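Q: what sequence does this backbone want?
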């Protein structure tokens, strides 16, 4: 069924061998094989071809197909001259071409209407040189090492500060522990990223696995911080009870995404990017692995983090606006009731005042906003660049620059998260308390977080009664003598006040309890 023609020699035009050629009745339109000597290699794949090219060094097998490729008509087994870096096939209009394997030293260009022109060669002849690979590796190291050092120093600073029992109380928070886990895996990510080989080697698959595995942990732990903030602040869940689920979920998901990938030998040397990454020679299969085990999940984590942070910020804004409205209504109602005289400053809720003026409140908002911003910049950018490189390839100088930008962003993520961790409010507050203790000053407890009655305890409720009376709960500070106790009063439109005494010790205890959940 098959006729095979074998030739030898290094002449650029390989003539046909009539004795081995197939019958004229089964031949496709006239075709010739042109091997230009000493030419730079050209594009690796062109869609819609009737040829299947299967390089088997030192030969190249070209199979001519009938129709859509369901039947082999004949094949040519040609030696590739040592001086040639490319080959082009000139033949009939193209219908189908299977992708060439990526782990080859020589490549083919299939041209439908003749050999490549000077214009096509100038646009498609780019390839990554060893010098460019070295430059990309140096830039990636230069961006990764500083971030890894910063994350490591922040962790050391956390540990030294936690030696103080007073400062340790500021660290007793769920989100802070999640931040520490994320920093640990950012350090491991930086080490793995810097230690991964920059050339095909035995440890290439292990390095790619370590990079992706630690990246998943670092990303998912950061996302859990935003999820925890929304669940505790907006929905009233206990963050301490949820902490174990964050740990279990992140661990199981990271293992599920990376263990099968390395077990099925999907990690290795990637010819397109000249890096240790996903190495499946089939373009479509490799793209499915990239999306299914990395790109989709990293993008989803960044999206969830952005949504949760936006919900928390919106909740804080509405909380502050509602409590100000309540204060104005409560002040007007109490004055009309003929009860104890209060000035505007005394009838305003202490919680609203602290929310509005405490600088730590603004710091919390800033921290919540910065994490999704960094995630959007780092995660979405790297995902887009990864997919662009996998789909388009590295065929021009612009593609090479995008590849370098991708490697740099992977390295900078450790620096970005390290700087955010260094400015964490819990860490800053712990340092302040340690400094105050050393200076011999008295620590005055701030009750910032207590100032917020989170979802389970609304700051203000308005309830319509059957008789038309509107009942409002407001926090009033009664200035009677030297008493500094806070009184929570239920004020009705009929002028009746029901007071419940709340001591500063109670508020301090509540503040500590809520802080541990955040």
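A:
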């Amino acid at each position: 069924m098959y006729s095979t023609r074998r030739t030898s020699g290094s002449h650029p035009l390989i003539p046909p061998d009539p004795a081995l050629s197939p019958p004229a009745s089964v031949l496709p339109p006239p075709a010739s094989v042109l091997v230009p000597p000493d030419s730079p290699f050209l594009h690796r794949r062109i869609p819609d071809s009737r040829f299947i090219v299967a390089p088997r060094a030192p030969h190249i097998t070209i199979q001519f197909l009938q129709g859509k490729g369901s039947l082999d008509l004949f094949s040519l087994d040609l030696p590739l001259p040592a001086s040639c870096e490319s080959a082009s096939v000139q033949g009939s209009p193209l219908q189908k071409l299977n992708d060439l394997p990526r782990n080859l030293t020589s490549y083919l260009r299939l041209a439908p209407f003749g050999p490549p022109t000077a214009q096509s060669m100038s646009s498609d002849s780019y390839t990554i040189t060893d010098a460019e690979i070295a430059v990309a590796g140096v830039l990636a190291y230069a961006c990764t090492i500083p971030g890894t050092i910063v994350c490591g120093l922040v962790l050391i600073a956390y540990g030294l500060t936690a030696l103080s029992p007073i400062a340790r109380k500021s660290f007793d928070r769920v989100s802070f522990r999640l931040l520490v886990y994320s920093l640990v895996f950012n350090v491991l990510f930086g080490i793995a990223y810097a230690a991964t080989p920059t050339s095909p080697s035995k440890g290439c698959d292990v390095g790619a696995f370590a990079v992706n595995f630690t990246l998943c942990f670092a990303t998912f732990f950061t996302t859990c911080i935003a999820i925890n903030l929304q669940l505790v602040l907006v929905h009233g869940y206990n963050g301490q009870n949820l902490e174990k689920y964050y740990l279990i979920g992140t661990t199981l998901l990271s293992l599920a995404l990376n263990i099968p990938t390395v077990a099925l030998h999907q990690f290795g040397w990637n010819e397109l990017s000249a890096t240790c990454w996903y190495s499946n020679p089939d373009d479509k299969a490799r793209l499915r692995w990239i999306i299914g085990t990395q790109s989709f999940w990293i993008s989803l984590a960044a999206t969830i983090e952005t949504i949760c942070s936006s919900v928390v910020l919106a909740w804080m804004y509405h909380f502050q606006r509602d409590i100000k409205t309540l204060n104005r209504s409560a002040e007007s109602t109490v004055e009309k009731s003929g009860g104890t005289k209060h000035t505007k400053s005394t009838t305003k809720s202490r919680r609203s005042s602290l929310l509005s003026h405490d600088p730590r409140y603004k710091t919390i908002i800033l921290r919540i906003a910065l994490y999704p911003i960094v995630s959007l910049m780092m995660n979405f950018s790297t995902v887009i660049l990864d997919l662009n490189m996998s789909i388009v390839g590295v065929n021009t100088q612009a593609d090479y620059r995008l590849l370098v930008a991708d490697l740099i962003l992977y390295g900078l993520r450790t620096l970005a998260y390290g700087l955010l961790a260094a400015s964490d409010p819990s860490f800053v507050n712990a340092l302040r308390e340690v400094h105050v203790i050393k200076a011999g000053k008295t620590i005055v407890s701030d009750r910032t977080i207590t100032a917020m009655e989170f979802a389970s305890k609304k700051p203000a409720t308005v309830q319509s009664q059957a008789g038309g009376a509107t009942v409002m709960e407001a926090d009033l500070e009664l200035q009677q003598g030297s008493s500094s106790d806070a009184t929570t009063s239920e004020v009705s439109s009929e002028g009746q006040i029901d007071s419940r005494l709340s001591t500063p010790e109670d508020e301090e205890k509540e503040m500590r309890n809520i802080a541990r959940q955040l």
